[in-house]
Amino acid sequence: MERRTRERDAFMRDPYPVYAQARSAPGLTYLPEMDAWLVSRYADVREVLRRPEDFSSVQALRPDVPPSPAVQAELAKGIRGGRVVLTADGEAHQRLRAPLVRGLAAARVGALAPYIAERAEALVASFAGDGRAELMDDYARRLPGEVMGRMLGFDPADVPAVIRGGYRAEALLFRPMPVEEQLAAAREVVALQHLLDDHIRRAHAERSDDLCGELVRGLAPGTAEPTAEQRAELVSNLQNLLVAGHLTTTGLIGTTMLHLLTDRSRWEALCARPEAIPAAIEEAARYDTPLQAFRRITTRPLTLAGTDLPAGTAVLVAYGSANRDEARHERPDDFDISRPPARTMAFGHGPHSCPGSQLAREQLRVTLRTLTTRLPGLRLAPGTPPAMLPTLIHRSPAALPVAWPVGDRNGN
Q1: Residue 2: what pLDDT?
Q2: Which of 38, 288, 303, 314 has the fewest CB atoms in 10 Å of its CB?
Q3: Which residues contact 314 (CB under 8 A, 6 or more apart)?
Q4: For position 69, what pLDDT does the model report?
Q5: Which domains does the chain have, with CATH numbers?
Q6: For residue 154, what are the contacts with CB-CB under 8 A and spacing of at least 6?
Q7: Nearest-angstrom CA–CA distance, 21 and 10
Q8: CA-to-CA distance for 42 and 323, rounded, in angstroms?
Q9: Quick one: which H or E segment has residue 10?
Q10: Would you say residue 1 has pLDDT above 70?
Q11: Do 315 and 296 meet the contact criterion of CB atoms below 8 Å apart?
Q12: What's the family (predicted)?
């Protein structure tokens, strides 16, 4: 068991060597540490994602760390129930996804752009005169949470607790922790669920015109008070949106800055040519996408890439591997912001493609514009290279210490 845990941890921190071996091997590759068949090639990943009737999403978010009975008892004090959009199929998925698509439409993202720019500027200004920062805690984990809080209409005073609750929910799913820490995380998740329930009630009563209001109108239509079942479904989907909505963008900001600064010629080129920022965003999302892989379960016996899969078989659909497929991209292991645009799996494909992709892109665009303008002398702080978190969900550096000359442009 200990060896399996080490292998799993190593794979999650750096899955790319395993991906490369799998793409060159015939058929699919079974990963015992993940208890699933790895789908690694672009064409095969695309095939799975376009056939939800054959590859179900019901277990897409299976916990990496099953909760102990004590943790389950603690979580039972919260508001639970109802399928979330990530783990739904067919008509149920369409019903859950529709209000998200409306709430994250391009017009809404455009209307939010001034707020994103304002908060990015304020966050950078808070440390620009220091000459150093830990970019994950000081910026990447803050901006997306604040933006999501704004989209959902939260009181700014509640946003820090909402952000922390989202991270604690993710930790319970994907991070090994001592029992006492699991219990503490469970209590924070329960507190978050009750906060979300109160917010849902207000959004319903006020008919709020924000993303939460769209969810309430979509999943609890009509003027009557939402039923207990509807509230449970809303809380579950709102909690899922918090985890998916801001943690993914946090990861994308972190990995983008890491790869731009690892070879500073990339950063210098972007500072010199800010018009390349859109291409840099697409390349960063391709090269090291924060959402590396999701599970799917076969609904019937079938064959994929020459491998026979019985009904009920788990496959690990690796977007991160598809984006490094040599058959799809030239020099796929090179980070090249001058790469010609091409369709990637950075934000998924098919019915479950990410409805918040434009919001994520806008936050990264503003981030790159702000940092290249304010801190062109930015560089990785000397010392140990940043380590990646051991997860395929929200892949990012655990920490990203950076430094710059104190007189740098506006950073004085």
Answers
A1: 65
A2: 303
A3: 35, 36, 37, 59, 295, 296, 297
A4: 87
A5: 2-377 (1.10.630.10)
A6: 162, 199
A7: 15
A8: 7
A9: helix 2-13
A10: no
A11: yes
A12: Belongs to the cytochrome P450 family.
User: Of 55-69, 218-232, 262-276, 379-393, which range is least confident?
Assistant: 55-69
Are 313 and 298 contacting, i.e. CB atoms less than 8 angstroms apart? Answer: yes
CA distance 389 to 174: 11
pLDDT at 260: 98
Q: Give residue for tokens 């207000």.
A: 202
The pTM for the full model equals 0.93
- 8 Å CB contact between 159 and 149: yes
Query: Does residue 297 carry a pLDDT above 60?
Result: yes
Residue 232, CB half-sphere, CA atoms under 13 Å: how many?
Answer: 11
Mean pLDDT, rounded, for 223-244 = 91
